[in-house]
Design a protein that fits this description.
The chain folds into two domains: 5-143, Fructose-1,6-Bisphosphatase, subunit A, domain 1 (Fructose-1,6-Bisphosphatase, Chain A, domain 1); 153-261, D-Maltodextrin-Binding Protein, domain 2 (3-Layer(aba) Sandwich). The chain has helices at residues 5-29, 47-63, 93-97, 171-179, 191-199, 212-215, 219-224, 251-261, and strands spanning 36-38, 44-46, 68-71, 83-91, 104-111, 114-122, 127-132, 136-139, 142-143, 157-160, 184-187, 204-207, 228-231, 245-248. It has 264 residues and is of the alpha+beta class.
């Protein structure tokens, strides 16, 4: 079932207001001393992560009480509903804590499980990327020209956060194997690397061990800028997807990667 343009615009406008609030919090708080706590999985979290997400949740519940909410820091609610907001208050918390500007706030709205728009806002980089299903991709509200790439995997430069580099993970077999095929790796960036992919500056991103709030807000941006984003088996991403994600401006390189990943 399609959504009327007026209704879609109201959802996007609401999301953009939330993003402006999160940006104001980040620009105010990042200059101050940041207190860090550690979750059960040893990942860091700050009071700013929690403040942004709690504000988002409060506003969503007030404006759209029947909508579900799926986020990083608090208990999810109504995630079987027609509309579900997926939020990550600070994607790249480690970068944020240590003064690296490559982090951002993520938000998307799912309709029957599929994202209809998504926003990456990186306030210290002064970049806001947005993808609207069927309506294009945008950088700071300027439409991004669609990428048309036919590069093969051996011609790829691949971006990766490096989070798995020192872990005993089976996914590292993939990184080692394709590392012998591609031109080279670049590291770091979290959500920012996907924004740069949409701009055509990074041709491919390969990540593992992600959560739905890490990747679902990226889907519309990547697809509307001419790229492809799936799990490592080539399946469409959803709330039920595993954490292995590949995005590329080249469908050929993406296909090459999928073929190799299925052999590991």
């Amino acid at each position: 079932m399609s959504i009327e343009q007026k209704t879609l615009n109201s959802y996007i406008s609401f999301a953009e207001k939330l993003i402006k609030k999160s940006e104001k919090i980040i620009l105010t708080q990042h200059k101050l001393s940041i207190s860090v706590q550690y979750k059960k999985d040893s990942s860091p979290v700050t009071k700013i992560d929690k403040l942004i997400e709690s504000n988002f949740r409060k506003e969503i519940k007030k404006k759209y009480p029947t909508h579900g909410i799926y986020g990083e820091e608090f208990k999810n609610s109504k995630i079987d509903n027609e509309f579900i907001w997926v939020i990550d208050p600070i994607d790249g918390t480690k970068n944020f804590i240590h003064g690296n500007h490559a982090f951002g706030t993520l938000i998307t709205l799912l309709h029957y499980g599929a994202p209809i728009f998504g926003i990456i806002n990186s306030p210290l980089m002064k970049k806001n990327w947005k993808g609207i299903k069927g309506k294009g991709a945008y950088l700071n509200n300027k439409k991004i020209k669609k990428n048309k790439s036919f590069l093969s995997l051996k011609e790829m430069v691949i971006s990766h956060s490096g989070m798995s580099a020192f872990k005993e993970l089976p996914e590292n077999k993939i990184y080692n194997k394709i590392g012998k095929i591609i031109r080279y790796y670049v590291f770091g960036g979290d959500c920012v690397q996907y924004g740069l992919l949409a701009e055509g500056k990074i041709p491919m991103v390969v990540e593992c061990d992600l959560k739905p709030f890490d990747f679902l807000p990226l889907v519309n941006l990547i697809e509307e800028s001419g790229g492809t984003i799936t799990d490592w088996k080539g399946n469409q991403l959803s709330l039920k997807s595993g954490g292995n994600v590949v995005a590329s401006i080249s469908k050929k390189a993406h296909s090459d990667f999928i073929k190799i990943s299925k052999t590991i």
